[in-house]
Specification:
The chain is 79% helix and 0% strand. It is globular and about 65 Å long.
Length: 439
């Protein structure tokens, strides 16, 4: 009888959080390469500013779009299998880029190689999609009252990857050259994927399903061990259920503004600092890394704040968007280097706090389809990392050097509209939010 079947369960919520964070951190590391090395390809291939912007932004396109189906897949099988697939695709892309650079760069690059570079960049971006998979994986490990802190730690520490590697990359380029740097990143991806395979853990419900228990019995046994959140019945159900909740779409736009903006600026800032202010590649890397790391660290603290406050997700989002709005205004008027630096600090605080707040709200807004909701929010929201650099590139193409500052007007409009949505979410919140034990 199934009731007497012996099962083996491994892992704890802390271990589940560690594994998911490790996988996302490794998958997100590749994004740092493109903003810093795009200038190398531009010089050799004589690329236009828009072609460079596309190369910088293209990993974010796959990183965004694949979040939707893969996070919904996580609602069916748990996050382990989807994240391993995404990391493996990133390894393929990075291996291809290393081969191109090692055997052809700089003198033997074929004139028509640009489409291949875009394809390999698309593959490298697959690891970024691990974010929404990890959100689902972590959410199922933790009760609602602890999800803000857990998800903020997951997102914040994982988001440290591009900042840390933006610091390191200029030094790697100096010491190892372009080919050596790509090889180092390739080795990192391979080792990280192997470590995730060792330490990544699904929540107990999914472990029980893998051992042949029925969904009803798996839910019962997992609930007895303390699991409180459970998925919808299928991938399609998860996506459809979450898509039918209007709050999902409000959160999509807010996340487009803050996390999409974070990805966009992490990729755009190396070009912004060097072309606009004429600083060295090392200085540009340090400034970009500071923005990225600060945003990520603030995100960790933002989750703790969102857990402590009444209506913490909504109130934290409103505060953070006001800070981001101030930072955007400073950047709009930052024709001088001395103004741009405090501007990016304000943007980092605003974006980091809001990124934590959004995923505090997600499990409350769509408790029976967290994976699907995380896919829509994380996937479509992260499209900002692809779209916003293109807008910034258009501003520079049309306005010249002044476009580097004027382009930040896009963040003012995004922040204002997101702020209005956060107010609507706050005042449409029910008196109490209960997470059902089953669907």
């Amino acid at each position: 009888m199934n009731e007497r079947r012996e099962v083996k369960l491994t892992g704890t919520p802390t271990q589940g959080l560690f594994g998911a964070t490790l996988g996302f951190f490794i998958g997100f590391a590749a994004v740092a390469l493109f903003g810093t090395t795009a200038a190398r390809f531009q010089a050799v291939l004589h690329l236009s500013p828009m072609a460079v912007a596309c190369l910088i932004a293209i990993p974010s396109l796959t990183g965004a779009l694949l979040r939707i189906p893969f996070s919904a897949w996580a609602d069916v099988t748990g996050g382990r299998k989807p994240l391993l697939v995404l990391l493996s695709l990133s390894v393929v892309g990075m291996a291809g880029l290393w081969g191109v650079v090692n055997f052809w760069y700089p003198n033997n690059l074929p004139s028509g190689i640009y489409p291949l570079l875009l394809l390999l960049a698309l593959l490298c971006g697959c690891g970024i999609a691990g974010f929404s998979v990890g959100v689902a994986q972590v959410s199922y490990w933790f009760p609602q009252k602890k999800q803000g802190s857990a998800l903020a730690a997951f997102g914040g520490i994982g988001n440290l990857a591009p900042g840390i590697f933006t610091f390191i990359l200029p030094l790697a380029l100096t010491g190892f050259g372009l080919a050596g740097s790509y090889l180092a990143w390739l080795i990192l991806l391979i080792v990280g994927t192997a470590l995730y395979a060792m330490f990544g853990r699904n929540a107990w419900y999914f472990q029980l399903l893998e051992q042949g228990l029925s969904p009803a019995e798996a839910r019962e046994r997992a609930a007895a061990r303390g699991q409180t959140l459970f998925p919808a019945k299928s991938l399609i159900d998860s996506l459809r259920q979450s898509a039918g909740v209007w709050k999902t779409w409000a959160l999509v736009f807010i996340y487009f503004t803050t996390f999409g903006g974070f990805i966009a600026l992490t990729a755009w800032f190396p070009t912004y600092w060097t072309a606009n202010f004429g600083v060295s590649a090392l200085t540009a890397g340090m400034l970009t890394g500071t923005f990225s790391v600060l945003t990520s660290l603030v995100r960790v603290g933002g989750g703790i704040v969102a857990d402590k406050l009444t209506e913490g997700g909504e109130n934290t989002a409103i505060l953070s968007l006001l800070i981001m709005l101030m930072g955007s205004m400073v950047m709009l008027n930052s024709q001088r280097f001395e103004l741009a630096v405090p501007g990016i600090v304000l943007l980092a605080f605003g974006m980091g706090l809001c990124n934590a707040a959004v995923f505090k709200i997600v499990p409350q807004a769509v408790p029976t389809a967290v994976g699907g909701a995380a896919g829509w929010v994380g996937g479509l929201g992260a499209l900002g990392g692809f779209i916003i650099p293109l807008i910034l590139g258009i501003a520079v193409r049309n306005l010249g050097k002044e476009g580097y500052a004027i382009g930040f007007i896009v963040f003012i409009f995004l922040a204002l509209f997101s702020l209005s949505l956060a107010w609507v979410l706050k005042y449409s919140r029910p008196e109490s939010v209960a997470v059902p034990a089953q669907t």
